[in-house]
Amino acid sequence: MNTPPSSPGAERTDGSSVRIGALVPLTRPGWVGAGRHLLAGLELAVREVNNAGGIAGRPLELVVRDTAADPQRAAAAVEELARLGVAALAGEYHSVVARAAATRADALGLPFLCSSAVLDALTEQPTQWVARLAPAQSRGWQIYADFLLSAGHSRIAIAAESSVYWASGTRILRDYLAPRGGTVIQLDMRALAPTAVCDELAGNRATALLLLVGHPEPAVSIVKSVRRDQRLTEIMIGAPAGQPEFTEWATLLGDDGAAIPFLRYLPERLSPLGARVETALRERLAEAPSFVAFEGYDTIAALAEVLRSHGTDRARTAQSWPHVAVEGTRGQIQFSRTPGISVWQWAWPPIQVVDRDPAEPDRFRILHTS
């Protein structure tokens, strides 16, 4: 008698591995440093799950695909991973890429726990299939706007490139700052060279410049131009999207890269679990782990709990998001429906505004917390 083949989302009981598809930017134009940290966190957590007995005795296995910051490539990877029979998807850093992946995962009925992308509208319509660990952009960037106001900045220039993500960030900042006396001056980086940005800043009497642009370019060139312009010695440069978090920033800019506040999703003090994971990640990466590495670890920690408790059937996984309660490296992870957010959201991840200390650029200073 022939046994019919299992559907891609069906339970397997033959001792084979439980496969998780991992979407990670590992090559340019993707943010390779972020991808490397994200993957390190994912891999460390998989190793620990397997050392503890796996999922009901079956090993957890990552099937990694490089998105290279390309939405079409990510969507194709989701389709491939679905055909390969993965139980769920994890990862991605770039918001526009994660949106493409989430849209395909929703259409295919494949659970996706997004690690690090913050764009509010990850899907056009509410979906049961997608959950997210990173805070929504509207929440994080409003906290950044609070920081700007508390630091005395009311005339704020935004150097922005063209993308859904940067446009969303600009809108959040403008809508939050305007009723509170703030003025947003938008500089279109499609039309301005980095040196021309300096003339605009001086002419508009801005006290802060926010970099809503890609890394390393044009962000690095803009910072160098502003730092060398004697008219702009008092201006604060900010990077809410987190460009200064990674070692490459300090390597490319040296002292010029310090004192540029950005958003980071870590608590003021790590829990014992967080401290242990930090040590292991530091050893794996040969450098201090970014918050993105912790997001990777927490993604697998949450997915493993779901798979242990509810099995590997895709539909049951999607139904389990509201029942998750697992200790992560940065707090208790639980998902809920948040107004204006189309996916299941960890509503209260910790949020900080930090910068690199000018006196010691490898050290971060906490400037503001949620």
Structure overview:
The protein is α/β, with parallel strands linked by helices. The protein is 38% helix and 20% strand. It has eleven helices and 16 strands. β15 (352-357) and β16 form a beta hairpin. The longest helix is centred in the first third of the chain and has 20 residues, at 32-51. The protein is globular, with a radius of gyration of 21 Å.
N/C terminus separation: 62 Å
**Helix and strand run:** EHEHEHEEHEHEHEHEHEHHHEEEEEE
Tertiary shape: globular
Strand content: 15-25%
What is the residue-averaged pLDDT?
Answer: 94
What is the SS-derived class?
A: alpha/beta
- What level of helicity do the residues show? 25-40%
Count of distinct strands: 16
Poorly predicted ranges = 1-13
Radius of gyration computed on alpha carbons: 21 Å
**Can you list the strand order of the major beta sheet?**
2-1-3-4-5-14-13
Largest sheet: 7 strands, mixed
Count of individual helical segments: 11
From the structure above, extract its key features.
16 strands; 11 helices; alpha/beta; globular; 370 residues; 7-stranded mixed β-sheet; disordered N terminus
SSE diagram, text form:
Elements: E1 18-24, H1 32-51, E2 60-66, H2 71-83, E3 88-91, H3 95-108, E4 112-114, E5 130-132, H4 137-150, E6 155-160, H5 164-177, E7 183-188, H6 194-204, E8 208-212, H7 219-227, E9 236-238, H8 247-253, E10 262-264, H9 272-285, H10 291-310, H11 314-319, E11 326-328, E12 331-333, E13 335-336, E14 344-346, E15 352-357, E16 360-369
Parallel strand pairs: 1-2, 1-3, 3-4, 4-5, 5-14, 6-7, 6-8, 8-9
Antiparallel strand pairs: 10-15, 11-12, 13-14, 15-16
Helix pairs in contact: 1-9, 1-10, 2-3, 4-5, 6-7
